[in-house]
C-alpha cells in the first residue's frame, strides 16, 4: 500500500475545512428533512419515512393501536406518541 501526502498552506487548509463543514452540514440538514426529525407532528408520508415502513404497514399498525390525530379530515401522527407506542408494543 502506498501512502500519499498532500502539503497545503494555511489558506488551503482553511478552505478545505470550510468545504468539509459545509458538506456535512448540508447532509445533516437533508437527513433531518428526510426523516422529519425536527417535527413533532408528522404527515402519513413523513411517518412512513420516520419508521422506514410502507403505507400498508402503517395502516396495519394504526389498526393495532398506533395513535393518530385527525382534525377536519387531516391525519397527523405525534412522533412522541409513536415512540411511546413502539416502546410499549415491543415490551
Summary of the model, kept short:
It comes from Enterococcus diestrammenae. The chain is built from four helices and three strands; from the N terminus they run αβααββα. With 91 residues, it is mainly α.
Set out the fold topology.
Blueprint: H1 10-35, E1 41-42, H2 44-51, H3 55-63, E2 69-71, E3 74-78, H4 79-89
Antiparallel strand pairs: 1-3, 2-3
Description:
The N and C termini lie far apart (50 Å). This protein has helices spanning 10-35, 44-51, 55-63, 79-89, and strands at residues 41-42, 69-71, 74-78. The protein is mostly helical and 91 residues long. It has a three-stranded antiparallel β-sheet with strand order 1-3-2.
| Helix run count | 4
Query: What is the H/E order?
Result: HEHHEEH
Number of strands: 3
Backbone CA Rg = 21 Å
Strand content: 5-15%
As a percent range, the share of helical residues equals 55-70%
Q: List low-confidence stretches.
A: none
Specify the overall morphology: elongated
Structural class, please? mainly alpha
How far apart are the first and last residues' alpha carbons, in Å? 50 Å
Strand order of the largest sheet: 1-3-2
What's the overall average pLDDT, rounded? 89
Number of domains: 2
Largest beta sheet, briefly?
3 strands, antiparallel
Organism: Enterococcus diestrammenae
Pfam family, one: HTH_17
InterPro entries: DNA-bd_dom_put_sf, HTH_17, SinI_DNA-bd, WH-like_DNA-bd_sf
Protein name: Helix-turn-helix domain-containing protein
Amino acid at each position: 500500500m502506498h501512502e500519499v501526502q498532500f502539503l497545503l498552506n494555511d489558506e488551503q487548509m482553511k478552505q478545505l475545512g470550510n468545504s468539509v463543514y459545509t458538506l456535512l452540514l448540508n447532509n445533516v440538514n437533508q437527513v433531518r428533512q428526510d426523516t422529519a426529525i425536527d417535527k413533532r407532528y408528522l404527515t402519513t408520508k413523513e411517518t412512513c419515512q420516520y419508521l422506514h415502513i410502507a403505507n400498508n404497514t402503517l395502516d396495519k399498525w394504526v389498526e393495532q393501536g398506533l395513535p393518530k390525530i385527525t382534525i377536519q379530515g387531516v391525519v397527523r401522527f405525534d412522533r412522541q406518541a409513536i415512540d411511546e407506542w413502539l416502546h410499549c408494543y415491543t415490551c
